[in-house]
Amino acid sequence: MALLDSTIVNVATPAMRTGLHTTGSALQLIVSGYTISYAALLITGARLGARHGYREIFLTGLTVFTLASFACGLAPGAGTLIGARAVQGVGAGLMIPQVYSLLQLTFQGAARARALSLYAAVVALAVVVGQVAGGLLVSADLFGTGWRPVFLMNVPVGLALLAGAARLLPRDAVRSPRGLDLPGVVTLTAALLLLVVPLVLGHEQHWPLWTTLCLAAAVPAFGVFVLVERAVARRGGAPLVPGRVLRSRELVCGAASLFFGMAGYAGFLFSFSQHLQSGLGESATRAGLTFAPLAVGVAVGSLTWQRLPARRHRVMIAAAWTLGAAGYLGIGLLMRTGAPGGLALPALLLVVGLGMGYTTSPLLTLALSKIAPADASDASGVLTTVPQIAQVVGVAVYGSVFLAAADQGSSGQAVCATVLPVAAGALVSALAVVPLLRERD
Are 387 and 255 in contact (CB under 8 A)? Predict the structure, then answer.
């Protein structure tokens, strides 16, 4: 639900504009308010889970998310919807980090790898499913409600999950006595907002001066965060991101690989969706269904990678990113003339999906493989933040490349221009795991 809500609203924005008689700026905040509050709270949400109980914080986040979804669905105007979307992001930021922590602490060995594989498949598929589901729900116009089922569908699902989670999730026997590191929370949140807000709003506002200033300030802000964390550690406190977590080569290399790969994936989905609807004139539903082979590839890879010998997993990740890069390049060459692509398009989308499926799941397992149970929440916070920030960066950067190229030429040529850096990013993801190739799982 949390990841799907990052993309499902994009398809519904035209109906929202008509139904709420709102402005383009308000639509931006409806879409981005969720992402901003979600991304800013992920690491803090992980620490809250360690301190107050993963089960309890998960249930709290799920309750907030479900109630906010109900408020979104009934919102009488744009202002109410913007506020409800921000609260919805708060719920997601509390809920999602607990998933990684609970998987790490509940499962061991091969069972943990299988659990993480299923979760990674959901993560990768949710981005695609959001586009399909959004188109179907808006087109259906259930009972004349237009865009509102996009949010209201979360309510029965959320209630069912609340009932199941309360019964099935394990209670925490031991909770962390560590504090929340409020200086770290403040500085990290400020740094993330300086990065995320201009990336989310910049393109639609034609990159005004404040966006450049915020992005420039984000770099020293992250530097301040590092200094604050070191100061907290010297005082004997509990820094938000302990240095020993970031000293794990598996976590750092895995997170870097995941960042570049997910950024390209999100940027490609955004750009190619624009091409299908604006360039080829396809409906939102048909455009969403075009990505079905990609979803199949993701599912197949996520559920079968463990059948390969463990000693081959790291090589498999590098090879799969390279395969994905080849798929992106093939799509760019196929689309450059503006033709629909024929049967070659679903085949190439399947290749890209396989590349994602054989990387996302094993990367999560690899990144967490050397993390001690005591650091599960902190590692979870990092790993949940990385893909979310990657998606924001990917849509902003690659989306801007596509839109700028489309202004200068055809939509097909814009796709070709966009997939070149996307493919390069996939190769960078492959290179990020090279330092780990000599080690064994």
Answer: no
Angstrom distance (rounded) from CA 364 to CA 383:
8
What per-residue string of b and e applies to 382-399 under the rule 16 or more CB within 10 Å gives b? bbbbbbbbbbbbbbbbbb
Tell which residue, 201, 349, 202, has the closest CA to residue 276: 349
Distance CA 146, CA 150 (A): 9
Its pTM surpasses 0.85 = no
Mean pLDDT in runs of 10 for the chain (441 residues)?
A: 76 73 72 79 82 91 96 90 93 89 82 79 73 69 76 92 92 64 83 82 82 93 90 81 80 92 88 81 75 86 84 91 95 85 90 92 81 74 80 82 83 90 95 82 53
Angle at the Cα of 414 from the Cα atoms of 348 and 13, rounded to 5 degrees: 90
Do the Cβ atoms of 288 and 132 come closer than 8 Å?
A: yes
Separation of alpha carbons 86 and 259, rounded Å: 24
Helices (H), 153-305: 154-168, 182-201, 209-234, 243-246, 249-274, 284-290, 292-304
Cβ atoms of residues 12 and 64 within 8 Å: no
Q: What's the full length of the chain, in residues?
A: 441
Q: Is 248 exposed, middle or buried (0-12, 13-18, 19+ CB in 10 A)?
A: buried
